[in-house]
């Protein structure tokens, strides 16, 4: 699951220098103004490489096998977390077994303290590993936890170094019982190379927004549909990137109405009262009628002589997925859903 950013809190490990002065001791690893650093960056930190893989809202812990210096970096773009529906700060980070330049053991354990600043108290949270450099097979303990607002939670993550040197670990806090969903910012004609091509488009949109996970599109043809193609999880909310839940699980999603309108794109921006290609009924199955009149011939054509069923963003009733039809040369958005791992 992945993707809403949250601010880091006060710099309590070693203090934060002004943004323009945030660099390692050797002066070669300057951190741009739009990022916040807590702690002390190791001299070996390759900041450009580290920041290239850091999504808004996520944390990256930077360490070195032979140095006690450890730092947390985060983009300070927005106070909202992209994955969990709560806000967190990471106040401390330590590497319990760093400072050994001989690397008698390549195992390293990172300890991070997370403070639950605001949001929904009592939710179940987890750590989602987004990437790691020179830090193989990271495992976090606890894997999931329940935390009240205003309290702290210590997270321990153990990994194995490939070489005796610098390393980094990028993670986000996830709502363990939630899957993300969005309306694509981009539009497309009805020529999508079938539902599989629409799925691939959703995956690309999610990857570009660094949301993580596996994604599929809310489209149908004569042989497949969301009802048949989705993982159909039970008990996992579908949540937009702005933290609003549109359905409590797949059963709720396919009962003919939404709890809240699905109207945010992969970046959390509003996409209201916009047409969406679906070819799908509210029950998640293919819309009734011929393929040429409801699904753009299985979403394989952009000819004006074929038509496809459209949904409408901003609606919670049946029209969210089956509002009207349009010619297949008309561009519209896609609705994309993260799949249960």
Describe this structure in words.
Strand 2 and strand 3 form a beta hairpin. The protein has 6 helices and 18 strands. The relative contact order is 0.14. The N and C termini lie close together (8 Å). With 341 residues, it is mostly beta strands. The protein folds into 2 domains: 19-175, no CATH class; 178-338, Mannose-Binding Protein A, Chain A. The strands form 4 sheets. The protein has a 6-stranded antiparallel beta sheet, with no helix packed on it. It has a 5-stranded mixed beta sheet with strand order 12-18-11-13-14. A 4-stranded antiparallel beta sheet has the order 4-5-9-7, with no helix packed on it. The chain has helices spanning 47-52, 194-208, 226-229, 250-253, 291-294, 296-299; strands spanning 35-39, 59-64, 67-75, 87-95, 107-118, 124-133, 136-141, 144-146, 152-160, 166-175, 178-183, 215-217, 237-239, 245-247, 275-277, 307-312, 324-327, 335-338.
Mean pLDDT: 85
Total number of distinct structural domains: 2
* Order of strands in the sheet with most strands: 1-3-2-10-6-8
Q: Separation of termini?
A: 8 Å
Low-confidence stretches: 1-28, 78-82
Major sheet summary line: 6 strands, antiparallel
